[in-house]
Amino acid sequence: MKExxxxxxxxxxxxxxxxxxVAVLLTWIIPAGEYVRFEDAxxxxxxxxxxxxxxxxxxxxxxxxxxxxxNAFMDNIDLLLVILFSGxxxxxxxxxxxxxxxxxxVAMKFSGRISIFIPILTLIFGLICTTQAVxxxxxxxxVMVMLSLALGLDSLTGTAIIILGGAIGFSTGxxxxxxxxxxxxIAELPPFSGIGYRFVCxxxxxxxxxxxLIRYANKVKKHPEKSPMYDLDKENEMAGKVSLExxxxxxxxxxxxxxxxVVSLIVIIYGSIVLGWDLPEYSAVFLxxxxxxxxxxxxxxxxxxxxxxxxxxxxxxxxxxxxRFMWKCFAMWTVVGxxxxxxxxxxxxxxx
Length: 352
Prior knowledge:
By secondary structure, this protein is mainly alpha-helical. It has helices spanning 12-26, 65-75, 77-96, 98-110, 114-128, 141-150, 155-172, 177-186, 195-222, 230-233, 252-273, 279-289, 306-314, 319-346; strands spanning 33-39, 45-54.
């Protein structure tokens, strides 16, 4: 009997192409219309919600899809360069070993104090992921699990420090070129506008996430049998396979690399808020310095997330065990996120 083939999630480009085809087909079905646009007091072009009118339908030919894709690349070349240079620059940072070495240094220094150790590491991963995705830490996950087991905790704690810490930075989108800049470009908002409130959101999610994680770690340390990974961790041999020393020490060259990173982020924030920089200037910063780092929080519970499944696979944590650990934190994130959105609406949050 022929074995039934399991469903596999299509490649990202296949999904995007399918969405484009559906959107093109809908141009033949949905009536066309437009809003009146005007410049507000800040000089930003916005729509007038009450002034909408129907216009003649202009259906798009499916044969025109390739040209629309090419023209979109040409019209948004500045945004593409920001993403290209930031990704390449951060790759150079990780190749230098500075990132791995500084995380290992902090882990060794504060590993004996859980209430300090966890917040410091989640802050490091969170700040890095304000500009990058969590999947860059897949190779580092076994180290955190090894350290967690050595402290009398479980493998979920070590994994969660990376995933939850990174989720805070990535999902609040303070400086992320591939999420914040892209969405603001589409919405015709000034680049990195509203950054102040996003940092407030980062702080709120950072606090509530660490409260959850520290309480869980203390519970598991006192009662190991309450861990969803208790049976599997007893057979875990990872503690003897990886050493923090394998990631090297912080020398002058690595400190200079980290210093350049900090300076670059300060320059970007200052240029955005004070000098009114746009995408070409950000590309220049990424290129010269060679450093910088909507899907959000759901990436850390969905089985289709490459970052989540990659890290869980690296440390041999079954997805169902992760969900048993994670669902309370995700529910808390959802409630906090709704509250922050309501506050933003009440304060008429917009470009700052």
